[in-house]
């Protein structure tokens, strides 16, 4: 085997070790994906939620643990685990998420003062529900998105 092939193989093996998801996270993620997500249960009315918007494609509701005075979760009814799992057929659905966010921000009185839209993807972003969703946050100065160093 050539040295260049060994270097490439070593790089591939160590990349997932140093920059991939931890084994614990991968296990928890796989287990959660096997079950219906909490959002699917809300969509199917198996769990209660305070719903503020719903159409055939999207549902929006207040989370159990709000992170800002205005905090809504905007969720496609199609279960997509992460942004990494979207396909071109999801283009209109993703665009609709933003249009619903704009509508809800206006209804909640934060469209002019400002708001944040956030989508967490996998371990380093803290994704814990593996059903794509957008957070709409506002109602106060939210500060920087991440700690400034």
Outline the structure in words.
This protein has 149 residues and is α+β, with helices and mostly antiparallel strands. It has a single domain (21-138), classed as HIT family, subunit A (2-Layer Sandwich), CATH 3.30.428. The protein has five helices and five strands. The protein has helices spanning 3-19, 23-34, 38-43, 91-107, 122-125, and strands spanning 51-54, 58-61, 70-76, 115-118, 134-138. Strands 1-2-3-5-4 form a five-stranded antiparallel sheet, covered by helices on one side. It is globular and about 60 Å long. The protein starts with a helix and ends in an 11-residue tail after the last strand. 17% of the residues are buried. Mean pLDDT is 85; it is low at 4-17.
- CATH superfamily membership, which one? HIT-like
User: Helix share of residues?
Assistant: 25-40%
* Assembly form of the protein: single chain
CATH topology: HIT family, subunit A
Task: Specify the CATH class.
Answer: Alpha Beta
Mean pLDDT: 85
- N→C terminal distance: 44 Å
| Count of DSSP-assigned helices | 5
* Rg on CA atoms, Å: 19 Å
Give a quick account of the main beta sheet: strands, pairing sense, barrel closure: 5 strands, antiparallel
The CATH architecture is: 2-Layer Sandwich
Structural class: alpha+beta
- The shape, in one word, is globular
The poorly predicted ranges are 4-17
Beta-strand content = 15-25%
Strands, count: 5
């Amino acid at each position: 085997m050539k040295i260049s092939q060994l270097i490439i193989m070593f790089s591939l093996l160590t990349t997932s070790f140093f920059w991939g998801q931890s084994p614990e996270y991968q296990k928890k993620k796989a287990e959660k994906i096997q079950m219906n997500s909490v959002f699917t249960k809300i969509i199917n009315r198996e769990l209660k939620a305070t719903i503020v918007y719903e159409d055939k494609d999207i549902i929006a509701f207040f989370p159990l643990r709000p992170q800002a005075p205005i905090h809504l979760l905007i969720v496609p009814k199609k279960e997509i685990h992460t942004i990494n799992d979207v396909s071109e057929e999801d283009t209109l659905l993703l665009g609709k998420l933003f249009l619903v966010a704009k509508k809800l921000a206006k209804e909640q009185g934060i469209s002019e003062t400002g708001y944040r839209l956030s989508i967490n993807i996998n371990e380093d972003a803290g994704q814990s529900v593996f059903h794509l969703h957008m957070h709409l946050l506002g109602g106060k100065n939210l500060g920087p998105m991440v700690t400034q160093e």
